[in-house]
Amino acid sequence: MSTASFNWIKVSKQMHCPICDKPDWCMIARDGSAALCARVESDRAAGTKGSGWIHRLTDNPQPSLLVRPPIIPKKNEEYPRASRERVNLVYNLLLSELTLSDHHRENLHRRGLTDDQIAEFGYETLPQTGNGIKLPFRGLPRKRHLI
Questions:
Q1: What's the CA gap between 116 and 119, in Å, rounded?
Q2: Is 145 contained in some domain?
Q3: Domain range spanning residue 61?
Q4: Has residue 75 been placed in a domain?
Q5: Quick count: other Cβ atoms within 10 Å of Cβ 118?
Q6: Alpha-carbon distance values, 53 to 30, 45, 82, 141 (Å)
Q7: Which is nearest to 46 in space by CA: 93, 8, 75?
Q8: Which of 17, 63, 116, 118 is geometrically suited to a Cys-Cys bond with 26, CB 3.0 to 4.6 A?
Q9: Are 51 and 36 in contact (CB under 8 A)?
Q10: What are phi and psi of 128, to 5 degrees?
Q11: Given 69, 99, 124, which residue is the final one in a domain?
């Protein structure tokens, strides 16, 4: 049983490893026939670089049995939704730290907006970093309960 012959799905918080019951490091064959567990040893090592061990789950694999379930956010009663006033305060504090890039201003002009309309509607640019958005929280309070 070669690991290359499987179409693997990474485990997740919604679909734990069936061997170690953890949400990370491991994979499950898409047909449900095997698991590659990075924690629990078996008699079949996966590759030569210590990536884990193969565990047979069933002798009757089903094509495309495992499809990653959609991520459905869990309701967390411990942290109720912020009030409209609080959300408005946070967004306004964030917007007060941002500016509109020249590139975005030019795009808005091409769409027919004037500088007065751009200012009235509050268009701003979120700065980008290599891995996502960098938020400039220089002037925001650092209290965890703010949001």
A1: 5
A2: no
A3: 1-69
A4: no
A5: 16
A6: 16, 4, 46, 48
A7: 8
A8: 17
A9: yes
A10: -100, 145
A11: 69
Residue 107: band (very low, low, confident or very high) from pLDDT cuts 50, 70, 90: very high
pLDDT tier at 145, thresholds 50, 70, 90: very low
Q: What Rg, from alpha-carbon coordinates, does the chain have?
A: 25
Calpha distance 147→94 (Å, rounded): 12
- Residue 64 clears pLDDT 80, i.e. is over it: no
For residue 44, count other CB atoms closer than 10 A to its CB. Answer: 15
Rounded to the nearest angstrom, the gap between the alpha carbon of residue 110 and the centroid of all alpha carbons in its chain is: 33
Q: How many domains does the chain have?
A: 2
6-10, 13-17, 46-50, 71-75: least confident range: 71-75
User: Is the domain of 42 the same as that of 88?
Assistant: no
The end-to-end CA distance of the chain, in Å, is 51
Residue 131 has pLDDT above 70, yes or no: no
C-alpha dihedral sign at 57, 58, 61, 67:
negative
CA distance 70 to 124: 32
Q: Which amino acid, residue 55? A: H
Domain finish residue from 69, 97, 112: 69
